[in-house]
Design goal:
Number of helices: 3
Oligomer: single chain
Distance between the termini: 38 Å
Strand content: 25-35%
Shape: globular
Radius of gyration: 18 Å
Number of strands: 4
Order of helices and strands: HHHEEEE
Helix content: 25-40%
Length: 141
């Protein structure tokens, strides 16, 4: 009897974990991993990851790392929301100016700065093409 009740609950838990992979329950999406890698490098004072060969980012665009460093030379970050359509994506992020960063790139304090990142995908690689202050309204459904 316990197996008859426990097995469906276990299956339901596994299904929920798979469904919520974008929220960090099991893993992050490739889009979120690309944003984390980019912001970890730039926010830590390092060099921004270069765009990939044949990048779909518009030519002559302002370097997003420069725009972010003007907001804060060092920062932690937290992904708030994102949306993607085809090979384009927009990601709302909160930056926390240096003063602390917890594990997992979560801001540890200070006044967060709302930032919108625009990304383009080439093949299976996401490149950060632009950064600006503010938010994009993203419908969660």
């Amino acid at each position: 009897m316990a197996l008859a009740v426990g097995l469906p609950l276990l299956v339901a838990a596994i299904v929920m974990a798979v469904v919520f992979t974008g929220t960090g329950v099991v893993g992050r999406s490739p889009l979120h991993r690309a944003v984390d890698r980019y912001l970890d490098a730039v926010g830590g004072g390092g060099t921004a990851p270069a765009t990939g060969p044949g990048s779909a980012c518009p030519d002559g665009a302002t370097d997003p790392a420069d725009a972010l460093r003007r907001l804060a030379p060092r920062f932690g970050h937290h992904i708030v929301s994102s949306t993607e359509s085809g090979d384009s994506a927009a990601v709302n992020v909160d930056l926390a100016p240096a003063g602390g960063e917890r594990a997992g790139s979560e801001p540890a304090g200070g006044d967060p700065v709302a930032v919108l990142l625009e990304l383009r995908r080439t093949g299976d690689r996401w490149d950060v093409c632009a950064a600006s202050t503010g938010r994009m309204a993203i419908d969660p459904f």
